[in-house]
Amino acid sequence: MEPFVRLPTWRWQWVIIAVAAFMSCVSVTQAAEIKGKVVDEQGIGIPQAVVFVQTPASNGAKPTAPRTATLDQIDKQFVPNLLPIPVGTEVQFPNHDQIHHHVYSFSRAKSFDLPLYKGEEKPSVVFDQPGVVDVGCNIHDWMSAVILVVPSPYYATTDANGQFVLPDIPSGTYSLVSWHERNRGKIADTAQQVRVDGATSELTFTLSLKPAQERPATSGQRGSR
Amino acid sequence: MLCAIPSVSWGQYDVEEKWPVWVRGLVDVRIARGGRASSWTDQGMGIGKSRYGGTGSLLGGERSTRLVVSQLSMELGATLPWGISARAQLNAETDIDVDRPLLIEAILRKEWGGVANGWGLQSGVMNNPFSLEHVGPAWTPQYTLTPSALNTWLWEEVYVVGLEGEWWRTTLSGLRFGLLGGAGFGPDQMARLLPPRGWVLSDYQSGVNSDLPLALRGNTDSVSVFDERDYRPALYTRLSVSDSRHRGELSLGYFDNLGDQDTFGVWSTRFGTVGAVLHPLANVDLLAQYLGGSAQSRAGNFDILFHAFYVLLSVHYHGHRLSARYDNFRTDDTDGPPSYRENGTAFTVAYLFEFGLSHRVAFEYMFLDSHRTMPVSFDPSDGGWQLSYRFRY
């Protein structure tokens, strides 16, 4: 019986390669979610922790598209006070107060300063190195925020109960870490390996936090300067 | 691809330690050319700080150009348990003959609530809350180098050591109301400077431990900023309201030192003030403030009514700021001779440019026209200019 389609032997080889490549792509794009919780030593959920993929999957993943984000200034506070972003993100710094702010950072991951006036254009900064960027205001010393620049597009911030969800993680093996501004330990010690293969993976990170030590804000008339 | 992401060292995720104690410093160096009249700080009748006054005699001499350290300040702060903040400011006054640091402020403060609604308590050595201009670092004027006559006086004599409470609330429509009330000791001789000297325009910051010279011919006496004699606390209050979009704020203030004139040397001084800060355009600040009050003393015929007003327009673009201010000030004698009357105006124009985190250069020109009918009737009218470089750590 004649084959349905007769192809030269060398062409069959190309079909096999193409099918194999297609199957490989299917396996890479077979996304799943990683969810879990960040808790303290008593098992209580920790809000405002960031969980992110630190090392790439063994089979690679999609490149990160350029992104933009905003760190606003409203009522002499940074909004939000924690801004996780993937590396390469351009962050805009509008000022919605009627008073002058002077935003700066001396952090290793990014050093900059921006004199900001109400109504003027929103200056922006591109964060091209992973790491923690402590942001402050040179005029209002109590104002502080953290921009956490993470190395991949896969990150999440925990909710009020300490829970997080990382959706659409391509199949592969990853190293995930958990970061919190007041974590006593090293971030490297939080690393966990996880194999994503289409099913939901669950992780729990346990952190030990230092006591909160924020500089009290001045919101009354005495703080109008 | 992810494998192309820059490598990272774990150390880059470390958070900078937030110290519970902080220190900041400010130094302002100026080239200043003043008028011929010696300053009130030299017992003269000029209405600027001593370095801006003339030389030669108390009544005045030749104009001079001087290089001076205008302000040398250290600010200290600490975060204490239970969310209490502590703050203090010390000034070293190199221009006026003071051999000790001046304590500008030393307070403990605690707030409850948030930005929209809350209340707070503050206690310690503090200036009054009425100046609309002293809103820069280390309580420097924000819009010009030299504050208005009105706010100069508020920062010379109106100090208390006491307790202050604040309450603020934002309505559903976005209006924000603030009410502040305080009581404190110290200002029993408040306004003693005004009858013999009149109004001045000066960036001198008094400390609670300052002794301010009296501008009287042949008199080297001084008045202490803190001088509690009758042990009755001064009372003051401030009410403010601002709109939902923060386009403007209206404030009313009242201060009464409740001076008991049966106690030797005590002055009875009270004043009210009304002020507005408007932002008609995003890059425009418009300020107007009026203050009126009375001072009485049984130590002599010093009773006066005093009034001051200014309007200030300031335009800013990035680090540049251009400001113009018109001042009007007067005193009216209300008892027997000698007559302590003054009627004056001033016009100030200033350009300020801030660059980097720590630097500012500024130029200011001031024209003064003041007429006094006082024991020393030297005309204090004069103008001057200042070129300033400020560094703040």
Structural description of this entry:
The complex is a heterodimer of chains A (225) and B (393). Chain A has 225 residues and is mainly beta. Chain A has one domain (32-211): Cupredoxins -  blue copper proteins (Immunoglobulin-like, Sandwich). Chain A contains 1 helix and 17 strands. Chain A is globular. Chain B has one domain (108-387): Porin (Beta Barrel). Chain B has 2 helices and 18 strands. In chain B, the strands form 2 sheets. In chain B, strands 1-2-3-4-5-6-7-10-11-12-13-14-15-16-17-18 form a 16-stranded antiparallel barrel. In chain B, strands 8-9 form a two-stranded antiparallel ribbon. Chain B starts with 20 loop residues before the first strand and ends with a strand. In chain B, 46% of the residues are buried. Residues 1-7 of chain B have low confidence and may be disordered. Classes of the chains: A mainly beta (225), B mainly beta (393). The interface between A and B is large, with 58 and 62 residues.
By CATH, the superfamily of chain A comes out as Cupredoxins -  blue copper proteins
Indicate the structural class of chain B: mainly beta
**CATH topology of chain A, anyone?**
Immunoglobulin-like
Outline type of chain A: globular
Under CATH at level 1, the class of chain A stands as: Mainly Beta
Q: Gyration radius of chain A, to the nearest Å?
A: 23 Å
Summarize the structure in short.
The complex is a heterodimer of chains A (about 220) and B (about 400). Chain A is mainly beta and about 220 residues long.
What attributes characterize this protein structure?
heterodimer, A: 225 residues, mainly beta, Immunoglobulin-like, five-stranded mixed β-sheet, four-stranded antiparallel β-sheet, 1 helix, 17 strands, 41% strand, B: 393 residues, Porin, 16-stranded antiparallel beta barrel, two-stranded antiparallel sheet, 2 helices, 3% helix
